[in-house]
């Protein structure tokens, strides 16, 4: 049987980088094909070539055995290739129907939109594939998991039968991931074919029929989940043995360093985002905050670190009231902050490594005497930290924009970890990083804990929370549902808490997970 | 353990080449930074030739015969261009042989008339450049903080008014006190005027483009009022009384040359702006706020404070621009004494990539073009507006480096550096 899609010798060069190096990939009809690789391995480049966003330097694409040229996304759609991007492309103030028909509008009497006809087709499609969605609902009112269904419906509506899903599970709870997998299975059962891009090994094992591993723009190999193991896949992905577990000794918690009481914070739209959070973090322990993105973790961290004014409640660091403190006062208390969005908050991309390493200490001796910046200590500091934290940069004058994501994060980690601190707030410290960098940052976090630092870790990766934390607090809709000692926590229990099921209900629900 | 270390090192090695390729030797970067503006100027001059030919009706008529007698038409056109650009250069820089001649006469006979006449071109260029340098630095400093100060022209008027007032109303002071006092007054007035826009931006979010434009009109009308009322000298014309000699910027060349100390003051201030932006914590904050306000907030900097500070310093520089014209050249204030220095300065900051050195060089070019234009008009009968066309095209090409790269087929290098002009509306 001819494969529905075949990529032959796809090569794409960017200045100084070979993003795709003679990549071959086949997708059979009705197959779920996982594309596994670290960030920067070339997965997204390859898919962008397939979707007509980039042009390959070499190689050819065959759809159903016929060579095709894809110059734009509309060419791709015409060939039945559809893509769900990692960041959804939906208009929040429009309804599901409007979003789906956008760009493929059905009209009646000339220029008038025929919403009813479109809604009818959407209902049919939802029924066929088990994608429950209310066509009249507004996108902004829908949970993320449902928004993703809308994205998938958008493709089916355009009659795509080769579906590319780019990291589709990043924003979902474990339960929603399960639901998504059901949907994917029903899609392939009806003759569609799916390319599933991911860097998560568990998902590959759970859903893929075949998996192709990419590393540094090259295909390392293609295999079947039943013929391999997670460890083997990880080694293929990274090119060396990786320890998937974080080694750490039991915590020896000391005094309370960070103490949050009845904290209420509003988000930028003025909606309550944090609703009455109580939280203590002790010296020498890591408290992990688990939760699906957008449940108030961001606002909680911003309030603690002085970037957002709380509505009410108190925050104390080492007994000092910092409820209304600025970011500067927060740092002055011997605290450090690894921000959630490193490129937005943590770095000035156009600045050299050197200046980013003193971004929040530029006014202090030895980096400045009075108002005069001292070049020499700044450069010595930069050289020392680049060495100590293994930041891969050509020199300390290179703008951080030119570094890889992992090395950008190392710049922040170097800056925040290198001064004496008692409290570390790390938000999504490994998001989007390669396995090697993740391993490195995890080790550093545990080392900081062992030095007696109090660590508050916020992550939407449940594995990360479970691997690093000594205690786990689960946040849902601005509240802390429960704080559980890490050794007692199970995935299922955390997953239910993340979905908003109260602890007292957990035992019942656990028996009937289908609900 | 050791095998793992080894593997890790291999891993490092693999990563090196791609990253190393991203840095370039410094000379390559300098060349790229300087090359593009230079090519932009060349391209603009080449294209302006078309306008020079069109502006000459006789020559244009000749072009009808371009197919029958191409040789005649082309040589006539080339002659015209040679005459025009020759006049531009001699008007802006002077004629080298005349300068040499003048120098020899002066040494041999002690008669300096010839030398002085031959230096008039260079003198005009430097005198015209002086207010441009100050005003260009004002806009550039704003750009570094992500602020678009369109109010330089207004701040320039307010600064000039303050300096003029101090200059004529106080009498009998020694120059060592009077001149610094007048300069300070000019800078301070400009700073206060633009700090209004800074305050509005910091505390109400009013966009500085709108507020500075509005403040320009207030400044223009205010100076009209002052010059027809409180600051009017007795007589018919709406001009201020003459500034006391003790407040003049010392003249550094004999009449009729006008070269004065303001030029050196401008160079010193340009160095100061460089030091302020790159060697002081204030400048670090201003640049950080300009490059990434979120990161600035994260790092504990006050965005409001830096907006106000940057606007005030920018306004002080703008004020000095007007002040140096009053104290160095005019020695009194007239209505509309500035011929748009404040607006041209936006172009200068763009051309100079918001760097003090770049601004100085761009200002010298602008001064040169203006000085040369006068000669071009008299010697080659070219409308003075042609210079504005040249200037306009230089800006177009500088603002669109891709266009210049395309014309001259230069490969782009990856890094554009930290050049920030301004952020979008309402941010």
In words, what does this structure look like?
The complex is a heterodimer of chains A (515) and B (427). Chain A is an alpha/beta fold and 515 residues long. Chain A has 3 domains: 5-238, Rossmann fold (3-Layer(aba) Sandwich); 245-334 and 420-515, Rossmann fold (3-Layer(aba) Sandwich); 349-419, no CATH class. Chain A is built from 18 helices and 24 strands. A 6-stranded mixed β-sheet of chain A has the order 6-9-10-3-11-12, with helices on both faces. In chain A, strands 18-21-22-15-23-24 form a 6-stranded mixed β-sheet, sandwiched between helices. In chain A, strands 2-1-4-5 form a 4-stranded antiparallel β-sheet, covered by helices on one side. In chain A, helix 17 (491-498) packs across helix 18. Residues 508-515 of chain A have low confidence and may be disordered. Chain B has 427 residues and is mainly α. Chain B has a domain at 126-364. Chain B has 18 helices and no strands. Chain B starts with a helix and ends in a 19-residue tail after the last helix. The model of chain B is unreliable at 1-22 and 414-427 (pLDDT under 50). Chains A and B meet through helix 10, helix 11 and strand 20 of A and helix 1, helix 12 and helix 13 of B.
Name the descriptors.
heterodimer, A: alpha/beta, Rossmann fold, 24 strands, globular, disordered C terminus, B: 427 residues, mainly alpha, 18 helices
Q: What is the beta-strand fraction of chain A?
A: 25-35%
Uncertain stretches of chain A: 508-515
Helix content of chain A: 25-40%
Largest beta-sheet characterization of chain B? none
Task: Give a brief description.
Chain A is an alpha/beta fold and 515 residues long. Chain A has 18 helices and 24 strands.
Task: Describe how the helices and strands are arranged.
The complex is a heterodimer of chains A (515) and B (427).
Chain A: E1 5-14, E2 17-27, E3 32-36, H1 43-50, E4 58-63, E5 66-68, H2 73-78, E6 81-84, H3 96-101, E7 107-108, E8 112-113, H4 115-129, H5 144-157, E9 162-166, H6 174-189, E10 193-198, H7 201-207, E11 210-215, E12 218-223, H8 230-238, E13 256-266, E14 272-282, E15 286-290, H9 297-304, E16 312-317, E17 320-321, H10 327-332, E18 335-338, H11 342-346, H12 353-356, E19 368-369, E20 372-373, H13 375-388, H14 405-417, E21 423-427, H15 435-450, E22 454-458, H16 462-468, E23 471-476, E24 479-485, H17 491-498, H18 503-511
Parallel strand pairs in A: 3-10, 3-11, 6-9, 9-10, 15-22, 15-23, 18-21, 21-22
Antiparallel strand pairs in A: 1-2, 1-4, 4-5, 7-8, 11-12, 13-14, 13-16, 16-17, 19-20, 23-24
Chain B: H1 2-20, H2 26-55, H3 57-62, H4 70-93, H5 96-109, H6 113-118, H7 120-144, H8 152-169, H9 175-204, H10 208-228, H11 262-279, H12 281-291, H13 293-298, H14 303-330, H15 341-351, H16 356-380, H17 385-399, H18 401-408
Helix pairs in contact in B: 2-17, 2-18, 4-7, 4-16, 7-11, 7-14, 7-15, 7-16, 8-9, 8-10, 8-14, 8-15, 9-10, 9-14, 11-12, 11-16, 12-14, 15-16, 16-17
């Amino acid at each position: 049987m001819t494969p529905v899609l075949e990529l032959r010798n796809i090569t794409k060069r960017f200045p100084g980088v070979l993003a795709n190096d003679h990549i071959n990939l086949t997708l059979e009809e009705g197959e779920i094909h996982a594309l596994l690789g670290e960030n920067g391995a070339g997965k997204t480049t390859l898919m962008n070539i397939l979707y007509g966003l980039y042009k390959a330097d070499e190689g050819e694409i065959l759809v159903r055995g016929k060579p095709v040229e894809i110059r734009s996304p509309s060419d791709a759609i015409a060939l039945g290739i559809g893509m769900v991007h990692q960041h959804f492309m939906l208009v929040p103030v429009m309804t599901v129907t409007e979003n789906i028909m956008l760009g493929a509008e059905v009209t009646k009497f000339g220029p008038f939109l025929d919403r009813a006809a479109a809604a009818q087709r959407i209902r049919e499609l939802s029924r066929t594939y088990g994608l429950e969605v209310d066509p009249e609902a507004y996108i902004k009112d829908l949970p993320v998991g449902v928004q993703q269904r809308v994205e998938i419906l958008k493709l089916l509506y355009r009659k795509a039968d080769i579906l590319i899903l780019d990291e589709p599970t990043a924003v979902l709870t474990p339960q929603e991931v399960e639901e998504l997998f059901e949907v994917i299975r029903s899609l392939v059962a009806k003759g569609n074919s799916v390319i599933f891009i991911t860097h998560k090994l568990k998902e590959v094992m759970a859903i893929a029929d075949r998996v192709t591993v990419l590393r540094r723009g090259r295909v390392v190999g293609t295999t079947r989940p039943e013929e391999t193991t997670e460890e083997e896949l990880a080694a293929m992905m990274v090119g060396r043995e990786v320890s998937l577990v974080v080694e750490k000794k039991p915590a020896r918690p000391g005094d309370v360093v960070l103490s949050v009481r009845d904290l209420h914070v509003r988000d930028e739209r003025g909606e309550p985002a944090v609703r009455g959070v109580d939280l203590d973090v002790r010296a020498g322990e890591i408290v992990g905050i688990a939760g699906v993105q957008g449940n108030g973790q961001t606002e909680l961290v911003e309030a603690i670190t002085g970037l957002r004014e709380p509505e009410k409640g108190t925050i104390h660091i080492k007994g000092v009231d910092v409820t209304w403190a600025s970011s500067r006062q927060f740092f002055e208390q011997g605290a450090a902050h690894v921000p959630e969005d490193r490129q937005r908050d943590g770095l000035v991309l156009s600045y050299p490594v050197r200046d980013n390493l003193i971004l929040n200490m530029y006014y202090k001796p030895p980096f400045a005497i009075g108002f005069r910046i001292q070049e020499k200590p700044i450069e010595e500091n930069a050289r020392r930290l680049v060495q100590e934290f293994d930041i891969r940069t050509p020199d300390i004058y290179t703008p951080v924009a030119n570094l890889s994501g992992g090395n950008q994060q190392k710049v922040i980690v170097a800056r925040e970890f290198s001064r004496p601190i008692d409290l570390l707030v790390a938000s999504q410290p490994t998001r989007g990083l390669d396995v090697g960098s993740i391993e490195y940052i995890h080790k550093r976090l545990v080392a900081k804990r062992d030095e007696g630092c109090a660590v508050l870790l916020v992550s939407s990766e449940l594995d990360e929370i479970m691997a690093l934390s000594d205690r786990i607090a689960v946040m849902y809709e601005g509240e802390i549902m429960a704080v559980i000692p890490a050794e007692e926590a199970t995935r299922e229990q955390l997953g239910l808490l993340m979905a908003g099921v109260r602890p007292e209900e957990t035992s019942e629900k656990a028996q009937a997970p289908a609900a | 353990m050791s095998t793992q270390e080894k593997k890790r090192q291999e891993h490092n090695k693999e990563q090196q080449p791609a990253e190393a390729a991203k840095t370039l030797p410094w000379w390559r970067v300098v060349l790229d930074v300087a090359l593009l503006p230079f090519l932009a100027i060349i391209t603009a001059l080449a294209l302006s030739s078309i306008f020079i030919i069109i502006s000459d009706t006789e020559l244009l008529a000749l072009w009808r015969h371009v197919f029958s007698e191409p040789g005649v038409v082309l040589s006539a056109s080339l002659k015209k261009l040679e005459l025009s650009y020759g006049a531009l250069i001699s008007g802006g820089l002077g004629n080298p042989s005349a300068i040499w001649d003048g120098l020899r006469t002066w040494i041999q006979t002690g008669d300096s008339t010839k030398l002085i006449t031959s230096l008039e071109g260079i003198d005009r260029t430097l005198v015209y450049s002086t207010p441009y340098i100050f005003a260009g630095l004002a806009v550039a400093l704003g750009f570094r903080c992500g602020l678009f100060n369109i109010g330089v022209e207004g701040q320039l008027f307010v600064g000039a008014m303050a300096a003029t007032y101090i200059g004529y109303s106080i009498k009998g002071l020694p120059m060592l006190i009077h001149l610094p006092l007048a300069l300070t007054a000019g800078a301070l007035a400009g700073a206060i005027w633009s700090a209004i826009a800074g305050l509005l931006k910091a505390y109400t979010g009013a966009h500085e483009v709108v507020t500075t434009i509005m403040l320009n009109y207030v400044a223009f009308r205010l100076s009209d009022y002052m010059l027809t009322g409180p600051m009017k000298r007795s007589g018919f014309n709406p001009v201020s009384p003459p500034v006391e000699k003790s407040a003049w910027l010392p003249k550094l060349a004999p009449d009729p040359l006008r070269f004065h100390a303001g030029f050196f003051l401008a160079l010193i201030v340009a160095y100061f702006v460089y030091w302020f932006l790159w060697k002081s914590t204030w400048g670090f904050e201003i640049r950080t706020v300009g490059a990434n306000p979120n990161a600035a907030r994260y790092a504990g900097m006050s965005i409001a404070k830096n907006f106000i500070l940057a606007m005030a310093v920018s306004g002080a520089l703008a004020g000095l621009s007007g002040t140096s014209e009053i104290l160095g050249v005019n020695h009194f204030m007239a209505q509309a004494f500035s011929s748009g220095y404040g607006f041209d300065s936006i172009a200068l900051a763009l051309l100079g990539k918001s760097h003090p050195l770049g601004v100085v060089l761009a200002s010298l070019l602008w001064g040169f073009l203006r000085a040369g234009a006068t000669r071009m008009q008299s010697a080659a009968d070219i409308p003075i507006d042609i210079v504005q066309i040249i200037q306009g095209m230089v800006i177009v090409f500088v603002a669109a480096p891709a266009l210049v790269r395309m014309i001259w087929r230069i490969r782009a290098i990856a890094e554009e550096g930290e050049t920030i002009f301004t952020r979008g509306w309402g941010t």
